[in-house]
From TrEMBL:
InterPro entries: AAA+_ATPase, AAA_22, ExeA_AAA_ATPase_DNA-bind, P-loop_NTPase. This is Type II secretion system protein A. Residues 46-215 form the AAA+ ATPase domain. The lineage of its organism: Bacteria, Pseudomonadati, Pseudomonadota, Alphaproteobacteria, Rhodobacterales. It comes from the Bacteria. SMART domains: AAA. It comes from Litoreibacter meonggei. It holds the Pfam family AAA_22. GO terms for molecular function: ATP hydrolysis activity.
Length: 297
């Protein structure tokens, strides 16, 4: 039975545990609320640099999508995903994200002038520009230093350009490295998304089941405890295991996923997980970054 067919069996309006980021399913754990507060803080205060990190599948992209949905017409957004490369390559990505013309033959000076002129023209039209860079851990040290140089477009008390960097824990390590000390000093707000705890995992699963028209009891409390043990509370892993569990349940016409069914699924080897980095929540506001470039905890 396909995963699409179990929605009919359970009477769901759609699959509750897809792997694609979807703000409609956003579950506000304590960590997610804090991270979103940091993002909103960065936007409202026109912070030049905001950094959000978290393990793979923690829900970073979903939070960014939620943020973008709240921005008004006075904001021009350039969204960059999976940008790679060093100096010059990044500027091509930036121009493309803002809908500005770019050519492989362009030199750096002409591209930067085009970018700067655009930011200034948006400011003159009472709009400000936000660059959101997802998967920012893929950038080189040189590219991050280039982003710092972009902040020089800002002058006086007015911030013309803001940048939000979202990435995996490696990004945090890069930002705190000695070579990026000047970059770290321009970061106004940063946080690290941690996985869900046991009670949040329970509430998260029930929230998604109820969101698609379920009762929330389609997966038993004992099954949820085992799901938490196997996933460590990482939302994407929780989704993956729950989705397969519902397929298994529907295939044998069971209206509730029990712990025995989760054990059977695990024994069949259909759930593959990777070792996650031990999370540490970091929450910093108002430039609480030390002069040594370390993130205050």
């Amino acid at each position: 039975m396909s995963s699409e067919l179990y929605t009919v069996f359970f009477g769901f309006t759609e699959r509750p545990f897809t792997l694609s980021p979807d703000p409609d399913f956003l579950f506000w754990s304590k960590s997610h609320k804090r991270a979103f507060t940091v993002l909103e803080y960065g936007v409202m205060t026109r912070a030049p640099l905001t950094v959000v990190t978290g393990d793979v599948g923690a829900g970073k992209t979903t939070l960014v999508q939620q943020l973008l949905s709240t921005l008004g017409p006075g904001t021009t957004v350039g969204l960059i995903s999976n940008a790679q490369g060093g100096k010059g390559d990044l500027l091509h990505w930036v121009l493309y994200s803002l809908g500005l013309p770019t050519d492989p033959q362009d030199n750096y000076i002409s591209m930067f002038q085009r970018f700067q002129d655009f930011v200034i023209s948006e400011y003159a039209a009472n709009r400000h520009v936000i660059l959101v860079i997802d998967e920012a851990q893929n950038l080189t040290i040189g590219a991050l230093e280039e982003l710092r140089m972009f902040t020089n477009i800002n002058s006086g008390k007015d911030e013309l350009l803001q940048m939000v960097l979202v990435g995996q824990p490696e990004l945090r390590d890069m930002v705190t490295s000695p070579g990026l000390r000047q970059f770290a000093q321009r970061v106004s707000a940063t946080c690290h998304l941690r996985p869900l705890d046991a009670s949040e995992t329970r509430d998260y699963i029930r929230h998604r089941l109820q969101h698609v028209g379920g009762t929330g009891d389609e997966i038993s409390s004992f099954a949820i405890k085992l799901i938490y043990q196997e996933t460590g509370g990482v939302p994407r892993l929780v989704n993956k295991l729950c989705d397969m569990a519902l397929v298994y349940a529907a295939s044998v016409e069971r209206t509730c996923v029990g712990i025995d069914l989760i054990r059977e699924l695990l024994a069949d080897g259909l759930f593959i997980k990777t070792k996650e980095i031990e999370p540490r929540e970091v929450y910093v506001l108002h430039n609480q970054i030390s002069s040594g470039g370390k993130i205050a905890e």
